[in-house]
Amino acid sequence: MDTLVFATNNKHKLREVREITGTLMSIKSLSDIELDADIPETQETIEGNARQKARFIYEKTGMDCFADDTGLEIAALGGRPGVYSARYAGEGCSFADNVIKILEELQGIEDRSACFRCVICLIYKGQEAIFEGRVDGEITLDQSGAEGFGYDPVFRPEKQSQTFAEMPAYLKNGLSHRGRAMQKMLQFLSQLQ
Ligand code: ITT
Questions:
Q1: Which of the following is catalytic: 2, 36, 38, 69?
Q2: Quick one: pLDDT at residue 193?
Q3: Using N-to-C axis directions, what is the helix angle for 11-21 and 177-192, rounded to 10°?
Q4: Domain that holds residue 29
Q5: 70, 82 Cβ separation under 8 angstroms
Q6: Pocket around ligand 1: residues whose beta carbon is below 6 Å from it?
Q7: Measured distance CA(55)–CA(133) in Å, rounded
Q8: Which residues are registered as beta bridge partners of 131?
Q9: N or C: which end of the chain has fewer CB within 10 A?
Q10: Bridge-based pairing state of the strands 127-139 and 113-124
């Protein structure tokens, strides 16, 4: 079984990724490898950040690893928060602060279409590969649900009646940006075996 280090400090992402990979591979967190690292994330694109995070951990450890960078792109906000999704409401803000900010910005706006984009950068045996997953949907009028994290309480994927935060994890992972990008990575790795 392959072992990959997941270059993230986001425990929610770690849980989802482990749920998605199941017994197919061993996913090590930074704390599993006793690495206390403030991973830089200073690029202007989601792909750039995914590469930066994976390269940072690879350079520190030499281990096979991957990173995920995700953005919520809202059409009526010109694609914001996008690459600024984590700190949209300001440095040190919470998930709740970000959600409130986008609900305020969308007040009175009819077009609530949005998408999540997730880019995964894998560094496997020293080679880099990129996988992307996307899910389209809309921003709901109010928050709903307590599962998931981040913007999940206000994102309803297309053709669904629930927000991501109202869904059990297996449903979100089956539809989500991260689930789709992860499936591409798993397929790529299985073809190398
Ligand atoms: P790492 O860089 O350490 O992986 P992060 O939280 O900074 O963690 P990102 O920059 O990729 O990760 O994500 C930006 C933000 O987008 C994140 O803080 C959440 O608010 C939001 N986000 C990411 N994935 C999400 C998801 O599946 N559902 C809802 N919101 C999500």
A1: 69
A2: 75
A3: 50
A4: 3-192
A5: no
A6: 8-10, 13, 39, 41, 53, 68-70, 85-86, 95, 98, 148-152, 164, 176, 178
A7: 20
A8: 120
A9: C
A10: antiparallel
By residue count, the chain amounts to 193
Q: Identify whether the C-beta of residue 88 lies closer than 8 Å to the C-beta of residue 98.
A: yes
What tokens does 146 get? Answer: 């307590």
Residue holding tokens 């299985």? Answer: 190
Q: What CATH number should be reported for the domain holding residue 16?
A: 3.90.950.10
Q: Where does the pLDDT of residue 121 fall: very low under 50, low under 70, confident under 90, or very high at 90 and above? A: very high
129 burial (CB, 10 Å; 0-12 / 13-18 / 19+) is middle
**Residue nearest (by alpha carbon) to ligand 1 atom 23:** 70
Joined together, the tokens standing for residue 166 give: 């109202």
Residue 69 falls in the annotated catalytic set = yes
Cα–Cα nearest to 21, from 188, 192, 185, 191: 185
pLDDT-based confidence at residue 2 (cuts at 50, 70, 90): confident
Helices (H) and strands (E) in the chain, counts: 5, 7
Contact, 138 vs 114, CB < 8 A? yes
CA–CA separation, 145 and 170 (whole Å): 15
**What is the structure's pLDDT at 144?**
98
Q: Please, where are the H alpha helices in 7-121?
A: 11-21, 46-61, 95-105
